[in-house]
Amino acid sequence: MAVSVPVEELLGEVAALGETPTLLVACGFDGALAPLGDDRALQQSSEALNVLLALPGTTVAVISRRPADEVAELMFLSGAKGGLRMIAPDDVEPLRRELDAVALVIDADPDSLTGLADADLGVLVDEESDPDADPEQRVYRVTEAEDVVEVLEELVNARRH
Fold this sequence. Notes:
CATH architecture: 3-Layer(aba) Sandwich
Helix content: 25-40%
Oligomer: single chain
Number of helices: 5
């Protein structure tokens, strides 16, 4: 399903999304924003999402099977900026269609990455290797939540310019 690449190569793909007029950034909470086994999102990821929330043409969604109010308590997000959505893994593709947006989907749950369109970019957060991955798919693999920080910070830089 996903191909492992150096984070630097993935960042080039992410930077290209900066020019997208309407972008959905959907990030899984457990394993992507918060390291597995940790109940708090990494502060740097939350800060990057806060910036993305404030940028025009950008919708941010947090993917989780947990109750939305619980996730909100475990993140460092400003609810006053609006635009933040809390969604389940199977709601990513319908939200992308509703917004008529290109999507960047980052999650440890592969179910969130199903139904991506050709222009979308998926990032699976998983330590496993997948030698049979299709390199033509725009689904990449990173190993940990710290890699997600780099991806989100690159997207912030690209969207600002």
